[in-house]
Amino acid sequence: MSPPSSPLIVESPASAPLQQAEEIDLSSPRIRPHPSTPRRYSREYEASGSGGRSRFSSPQRSGSGSEGLRWFGLDVVGFFGSGREGRERQRQQRMKRKVGRVVWYRRKVVVAILVLVVIFFVVNWWMLSRLSIPKMGGRRRKALSENSSFIEGDWKKLAKLKKSPKFLHDRMLALAAHALAEGQSKPEPKDLWKEPLDPSETWSPCADKRKWLPNDGKNGYLMVTANGGMNQQRVAVCNAVVVARFLNATLVIPKFMYSSVWRDVSQFGDIYQEEYFINYLTPDIQIVKELPVELQSLDLEAIGSVVTDADIRKEAQLSFFVKNILPLLHQNKVVHLVGFGNRLAFDPMPFELQRLRCRCNFHALQFTPKIQETGALLVQKMRLARHPGPLDRHLVGSYTDAILKKRKVLAKKASKYLSLHLRFEIDMVAHSLCDYGGGEEERKELEAYREIHFPALTQLKKNKNLPPPAALRSEGLCPLSPEEAILMLAALGFKRDTRIFLAGANIYGGQARLDALSNLFPNMVTKEKLLTSSEIEPFQNFSSQLAALDFIACTASDVFAMTDSGSQLSSLVSGFRTYYGGGNMPTIRPNKRRLAGIFMKNSTIEWKIFEQRVRKAVRQTKHVQSRTVSRSVYRNPRCRECMCLKD
User: Fold this and answer.
1) How confident is the model over 509-552, as pLDDT tens digits?
2) CB 325 within 8 A of CB 311
3) Would you list the domain boundaries of the chain?
4) What distances in angstroms separate CA 550 from CA 400, 543, 544, 553, one per listed residue?
5) How far apart, in whole angstroms, are the C-alpha atoms of residue 546 and residue 113?
6) Comparing C-alpha atoms, which of 14, 6, 4 is closest to residue 59?
7) Residue 252: beta bridge partners?
8) How confident is the model over 560-588, as pLDDT tens digits?
9) Contact (CB, 8 A) for 15 and 1
10) Running DSSP on this structure, what letter comes out for residue 225?
């Protein structure tokens, strides 16, 4: 066994006897070497504890005996002091070294974080610079000019747009311009002009089939005054036909209410063919042009026969009319429904009454010859072809052939065209409570419009905390702006030279917004640009008749794109295309909520990623499903009441 380690003798001052010297045990943690001590010294120290001889096993005394113990060549007593004072000084030194290491480590962490932040901003700046519009050399500019006719002036126009506060997607518009210029020579996606089909389902129109006898209308006369624009009025007319049949009442040709928004004095006979309407529905209901003479002098309001839209809840069921309207018919022989629109529920509804609804909308309502002729001219100017489209005859009758004979210079091959309905008039923008980048000026303008035209909404906004514009947009409650609609079309793969018919009047933002669209798609036209002044002059100041022209051009197009699924025009057009299209008339129905999530990343998202996400979002809504309960038959007539399913 190794001999026990000798105690370390610390000499006291020279005047003290040696036997009073303090014994210090090397195994004590107070004298253990610091963790920073080199490993070779640590090994020697540990060896001394097992009896091995080391340089620390015995004290080194000076000749005079006053220097005390020397450790690592240092005078331990002189350096640390003696007793408690020495130990305290030693502890303080260890603490100082520990604090110094912590401070040094923290400085390294801070420096590393700063370096990473700098690298992040540098990389981000580099990526954004790569996404911006490049400065093109001579060859590059020449190639783009030859392949896509995207001249340098268009780049300058887009640069000016970036200074305008009215656009929320300046960066994405610039990226779209670049992508359209480069993609002109690339093929379009295969399914771009096609409607996804389910081979197991083939639907065909059959709402013209009847399985009942006409009613006699002996319960009285039903008068209807429809509100809204042309499309709301069309829905009101067909709902009135169903109510008249259900109550066994005689329908008086509906009248249209004058609106301070639409400012149109057009009546039923100015838009639809009255005689055709009466004759076509005679097997279903009795229709007259006006009340009998003996009833015309009645004060309907005084006798309680006037029922307003405030008296009928939205989408009321048939039981409401039996309980409230039928007794008035029996008592007064006439009832006047004022402001009648979407006041009839879609379900529950008897099979034949639902079919009557579709028969009215898709068969009985034919536009006047004046509208049909001009509508046929619009379609032929867009299509540039000798051959009519599959829906032309259902929309404009025989006027397609007449227009083709008049036009001598026609293309041999039909030119496809896309129609886009921008539901972005000031009334829609004001009612949505959304923000479209116009700042304080836009906010004041829309607020003033709401106070005049939507006083109830203004009062509601004052009394309740309504969701902010950002929340409305994230939930998909804001109509797509013209810029967002064009970005959607560019992302779907439509080429820059695509012929686009732009429906809608008085776009909010004026010509500046339209210029932003035409810079990306120069072949985009409106009916005002497509028709000559003499051709469109008979329709000026008649917004409902102009809307009828939009209806024809949109319905006959090869692809129809809507921006707001709540729009009546979009609903009626998509329904008409579903009913007569045979599965070959695709309609783009954007999911605004999903697109809002994509557009909210417009400051960082790359164009290819944007393309992929938009195409995925639109592809899921492009397929036409069978109508579900409580859904509009005007929007989606693909149900057994309106269409027949072939095996």
Assistant:
1) 888 888 878 889 999 999 999 999 999 999 998 999 999 999 99
2) no
3) 165-194+368-424+479-581+587-621, 221-364
4) 16, 10, 10, 5
5) 63
6) 6
7) 288
8) 999 888 789 999 999 999 999 988 899 99
9) no
10) E
